[in-house]
TrEMBL record:
It comes from the Bacteria. It comes from Thermobifida cellulosilytica TB100. Transmembrane segments: none annotated. Keywords: Magnesium, Metal-binding. This is MFS transporter. GO terms for molecular function: 3'(2'),5'-bisphosphate nucleotidase activity; metal ion binding.
Length: 263
């Protein structure tokens, strides 16, 4: 079995195992103190993933939302980019299932493996076996754009109005991109600033599934940079990318300040 294949499986298995720990943590602690639960979730998942990667891939660097940034990653050939708990707000709310665990591997400038676990949904999407993308959307179906359920962005509202699209509120970035892969939505767009760990794993899986993923100006998404912030992102079915990029430019030009609301 090749090393690359093993990396796919490591990403998948660790995302699943971290997610299982988070589900048990929710069951054990309950939701009476949501901030305590959220803090525990971030820490428990980070410590598990960081320790497991140190054991399984001791020569690789790690970039984690919950860990101190190690500048040595900038000279490394292989860097694991992880978000131990994406959608912390939703994790601390009863009944919410739109939170995730992200595990991705960047190697020599590219994302080469990734997994997104949706533990409360009992689902994991990974580059081991990327989801199948239907060849065509149902005829006449309105476009559906995943958007924040707590901070609906004005820029995305304007874009939806121009496209005649429906907004689908949802929690974590991973859950939103998974919704596009699973056919629950057609488009994920974010214009308010993120970090690399918010999208690395979902983008790795989305690309493996055949989706388009880029910046809002159509330029490439790049990872393992000195500054891990990532201002904007578009993930969509490939046949929609040209129309969407043109519409994004049009809407941005209507606002002299450009798109500046979070998704």
């Amino acid at each position: 079995m090749s090393t690359i294949r093993n990396d796919h499986e490591v990403a998948r298995d660790l995302a699943i195992q971290a997610g299982q720990q988070l589900v048990r943590l929710r069951e054990r602690n309950g939701f009476d103190e949501p901030e305590v639960l959220r803090t525990l979730g971030d820490r428990v998942s980070h410590e598990f993933l960081f320790s497991a990667l140190g054991r399984l891939r001791p020569s690789d660097a790690v970039l984690s939302e919950e860990g101190a940034d190690d500048p040595r990653r900038l000279g490394a050939r292989r860097v694991w980019i992880i978000d131990p708990l994406d959608g912390t707000r939703e994790f601390g709310e009863v009944g919410r299932t739109d939170w995730a665990v992200h595990v991705a591997l960047w190697e020599d400038g590219e994302l080469v493996a990734g997994a997104v676990s949706l533990p409360a949904q009992g689902s994991t999407l990974s580059t081991v076996d990327p989801p199948w993308l239907p060849e065509e959307r149902p005829a006449g179906q309105r476009l559906r754009i995943t958007t924040s359920r707590t901070r609906p962005p004005e820029f995305v509202r304007r874009l939806a109005n121009q496209l005649g699209a429906e907004l689908v509120p949802m929690g974590s970035a991973g859950a939103k991109i998974c919704a596009v892969m699973l056919g629950i939505a057609d488009i994920y767009i974010h214009a308010g600033g993120q970090y690399e760990w918010d999208s690395a794993a979902p983008v790795a899986v989305a690309r493996a599934a055949g989706l388009h993923a880029s910046r809002l100006d159509g330029s490439a998404l790049t990872y393992n940079r000195p500054d891990p912030s990532l201002p904007d992102i578009l993930v969509c079915r490939p046949e929609l990318s040209g129309t969407l990029l043109a519409s994004i430019r049009h809407v941005a030009n209507l606002d002299s300040a450009g798109p500046h609301a979070g998704a």
